[in-house]
Protein backbone atom coordinates (compact mmCIF):
# COMPACT_ATOMS: atom_id res chain seq x y z
CA UNK A 1 0.00 0.00 0.00
CA UNK A 2 1.35 3.41 -0.88
CA UNK A 3 0.48 6.35 1.34
CA UNK A 4 -0.96 9.16 -0.75
CA UNK A 5 0.58 11.93 1.35
CA UNK A 6 3.87 11.99 3.28
CA UNK A 7 3.61 11.30 7.01
CA UNK A 8 5.80 10.90 10.04
CA UNK A 9 2.84 9.98 12.25
CA UNK A 10 3.07 6.41 13.55
CA UNK A 11 -0.74 6.27 13.73
CA UNK A 12 -1.00 6.72 9.96
CA UNK A 13 1.59 4.00 9.33
CA UNK A 14 -0.10 1.58 11.76
CA UNK A 15 -3.47 2.29 10.12
CA UNK A 16 -2.04 1.55 6.65
CA UNK A 17 -0.45 -1.71 7.89
CA UNK A 18 -3.81 -2.76 9.41
CA UNK A 19 -5.59 -2.09 6.11
CA UNK A 20 -3.02 -4.23 4.28
CA UNK A 21 -3.57 -7.07 6.73
CA UNK A 22 -7.35 -6.81 6.19
CA UNK A 23 -6.75 -7.32 2.45
CA UNK A 24 -4.52 -10.40 2.77
CA UNK A 25 -6.18 -11.98 5.84
CA UNK A 26 -7.10 -15.66 5.48
CA UNK A 27 -8.94 -17.45 8.30
CA UNK A 28 -6.92 -20.23 9.90
CA UNK A 29 -3.52 -18.76 8.95
CA UNK A 30 -1.07 -17.35 11.47
CA UNK A 31 0.39 -13.85 11.08
CA UNK A 32 3.23 -12.42 13.13
CA UNK A 33 4.67 -9.17 11.83
CA UNK A 34 4.15 -6.38 9.34
CA UNK A 35 7.12 -5.16 7.34
CA UNK A 36 7.33 -1.58 6.16
CA UNK A 37 9.42 -0.27 3.29
CA UNK A 38 10.18 3.43 3.31
CA UNK A 39 10.96 5.47 0.23
CA UNK A 40 10.34 8.71 -1.63
CA UNK A 41 11.38 10.89 1.30
CA UNK A 42 10.49 14.57 1.35
CA UNK A 43 11.39 17.56 3.50
CA UNK A 44 9.16 18.25 6.46
CA UNK A 45 6.44 20.77 5.66
CA UNK A 46 7.04 20.68 1.91
CA UNK A 47 4.70 18.18 0.27
CA UNK A 48 2.19 18.08 -2.51
CA UNK A 49 -1.10 16.96 -0.98
CA UNK A 50 -3.17 14.47 -2.93
CA UNK A 51 -6.58 15.53 -4.23
CA UNK A 52 -7.95 11.99 -3.76
CA UNK A 53 -6.67 11.38 -0.23
CA UNK A 54 -9.66 11.07 2.12
CA UNK A 55 -7.71 11.75 5.30
CA UNK A 56 -6.58 15.25 6.16
CA UNK A 57 -3.23 15.78 7.93
CA UNK A 58 -3.66 15.47 11.70
CA UNK A 59 -3.40 18.62 13.78
CA UNK A 60 -0.37 18.70 16.13
CA UNK A 61 0.83 15.33 14.81
CA UNK A 62 4.45 16.49 14.69
CA UNK A 63 4.37 17.67 18.31
CA UNK A 64 2.76 14.43 19.51
CA UNK A 65 5.31 12.20 17.73
CA UNK A 66 8.18 14.37 19.04
CA UNK A 67 6.81 14.07 22.59
CA UNK A 68 6.45 10.30 22.22
CA UNK A 69 10.06 10.01 20.99
CA UNK A 70 11.39 12.34 23.70
CA UNK A 71 9.68 10.48 26.56
CA UNK A 72 10.77 7.08 25.25
CA UNK A 73 14.36 8.33 24.89
CA UNK A 74 14.35 9.87 28.37
CA UNK A 75 12.43 7.23 30.36
CA UNK A 76 13.36 4.14 28.35
CA UNK A 77 12.11 2.40 25.24
CA UNK A 78 8.50 1.27 25.59
CA UNK A 79 7.51 3.86 28.20
CA UNK A 80 4.80 5.06 25.82
CA UNK A 81 3.46 2.84 23.06
CA UNK A 82 0.35 2.28 20.96
CA UNK A 83 -2.41 0.10 22.43
CA UNK A 84 -2.31 -2.30 19.48
CA UNK A 85 1.18 -3.38 20.54
CA UNK A 86 -0.22 -5.03 23.67
CA UNK A 87 1.14 -4.84 27.20
CA UNK A 88 3.42 -7.89 27.24
CA UNK A 89 5.89 -8.30 24.40
CA UNK A 90 7.24 -11.87 24.60
CA UNK A 91 9.47 -11.42 21.55
CA UNK A 92 12.34 -8.95 21.71
CA UNK A 93 14.80 -8.07 18.97
CA UNK A 94 18.31 -9.39 19.58
CA UNK A 95 20.59 -6.44 20.27
CA UNK A 96 23.87 -8.11 21.28
CA UNK A 97 25.54 -7.21 17.98
CA UNK A 98 24.13 -3.69 17.71
CA UNK A 99 26.58 -1.30 16.05
CA UNK A 100 27.62 1.80 18.00
CA UNK A 101 25.78 4.99 17.06
CA UNK A 102 28.66 7.45 17.11
CA UNK A 103 26.79 10.14 15.17
CA UNK A 104 23.56 10.11 17.17
CA UNK A 105 24.47 9.05 20.73
CA UNK A 106 27.11 10.93 22.70
CA UNK A 107 27.38 7.93 25.05
CA UNK A 108 28.61 5.77 22.12
CA UNK A 109 31.49 8.11 21.19
CA UNK A 110 34.85 6.55 22.06
CA UNK A 111 36.87 8.17 24.83
CA UNK A 112 40.63 8.32 24.38
CA UNK A 113 42.96 9.08 27.28
Describe the structure.
With 113 residues, this protein is mainly α. The protein has one domain. Helix content is 27%, strand content 0%. The chain has two helices and no strands. The longest helix is centred in the N-terminal third of the chain and has 15 residues, at 10-24. The radius of gyration is 18 Å and the shape is extended. The mean pLDDT is 82. Keywords: Nucleotidyltransferase, Transferase. Residues 62-112 form the DUF4113 domain. Residues 2-51 form the DNA polymerase Y-family little finger domain. One of its GO terms (biological process) is DNA repair.
List the domain count as a whole number.
1
Q: Strand portion, in percent?
A: under 5%
Low-confidence stretches: none
Oligomer class:
single chain
SS field, number of helical segments: 2
Structural class: mainly alpha
Largest sheet: none
> How many E-type strands?
0
Work out the helicity level.
25-40%
Shape: extended
Which whole number gives the mean pLDDT?
82
Q: How do the helices and strands follow one another from N- to C-terminus?
A: HH
Summary tags:
113 residues; mainly alpha; damaged DNA binding; EC 2.7.7.7; nucleotidyltransferase; DUF4113
Write the layout of secondary structure elements.
Blueprint: H1 10-24, H2 61-75
Summed up, what is this model?
InterPro entries: DNA_pol_Y-fam_little_finger, DUF4113. This protein is mostly helical and 113 residues long.
